[in-house]
Amino acid sequence: MSPSLDWSRIGAELDARGWALTGPLLKPETCAAIADLYPRDEGFRSRVVMARHGFGRGEYKYFSYPLPDLVQRLRQGLYGPLAQVANRWAQRLGQDHRFPESLDDMLARCHAAGQVRPTPLLLTYGPGDYNCLHQDLYGEHVFPLQAAFLLDEPGRDFEGGEFVIVEQRPRQQSAPQVAPLRQGEGVIFAVRERPAEGTRGVHRRVLRHGVSEVRSGRRRTLGVIFHDAT
């Protein structure tokens, strides 16, 4: 899949605030097909119950290789345009390294460093569940952008459960933002940090993301991360 997205807008919004919405991308039947994978054991490498680790409440499962076809096509199709953003950010931040143009080369870099476990995942939340603010790092090699796709419809399938991004700003209070996702829509966001213009030039702004408490219903999400884990 090579998603037909407005990459000019998405790139500008990522530069300006560290996150951007894709607009509607996955059809409801596609969302249902992905979400329906969760109860199965095959196709996943591990299951995490968040409360056991202090991550929040709810649970998630990491896919195993080979990834489901749709997940693989999303990962491949999103990576190329985002690599351009990632390299622009690296240049602005004065970093020496650059990211490969292809996902295969990025994963080869991860695997050579022992990061061999796939990181795309399915998350599920019920009433009272939430996800604490965090960053999905997983190892030495971190691609600086990732995506999350909402598989259920807010207001119909669940209430609450907003996707929250908090940005730390120099000498100021942290600024929370809510990404107003709809079913089949994705949010692309900074994994760890983004470059920002300040009075003294470019500086780093650290971001964390999470999910507010689900008040009722069920909320399921597909997470697409481009670096693998140790």
Number of strands: 15
Largest sheet: 7 strands, antiparallel
Q: Number of helical segments? A: 4
CATH homologous superfamily? q2cbj1_9rhob like domain
Q: According to CATH, what is the class?
A: Mainly Beta
Q: What is the general shape? A: globular
**Helical content, roughly?**
10-25%
Second-tier CATH architecture: Sandwich
| Mean pLDDT over the residues | 95
Strand order in the largest sheet: 1-11-7-15-5-4-2
What percent strand?
35-45%
Q: Give the termini separation.
A: 27 Å
Which spans have pLDDT < 50 for at least 5 consecutive residues?
none
And the CATH topology? Answer: Jelly Rolls
Radius of gyration (CA) equals 17 Å
Would you list the SSEs in sequence order as H and E? HEHEEEHHEEEEEEEEEEE
Q: What is the SS-derived class?
A: alpha+beta
Count of the domains: 1
Report what the structure shows:
The protein has one domain: Sandwich (Jelly Rolls). Helix content is 23%, strand content 36%. It has helices at 7-17, 28-35, 69-92, 103-112; strands at residues 19-24, 44-49, 56-57, 59-63, 121-125, 130-134, 145-150, 158-160, 163-168, 175-179, 185-190, 193-198, 201-211, 214-217, 219-225. A 7-stranded antiparallel β-sheet has the order 1-11-7-15-5-4-2. Strand 9 (163-168) and strand 10 form a beta hairpin.
Which features does this protein show?
single chain, 230 residues, alpha+beta, Jelly Rolls, 7-stranded antiparallel sheet, 6-stranded antiparallel sheet, 4 helices, 15 strands, 23% helix
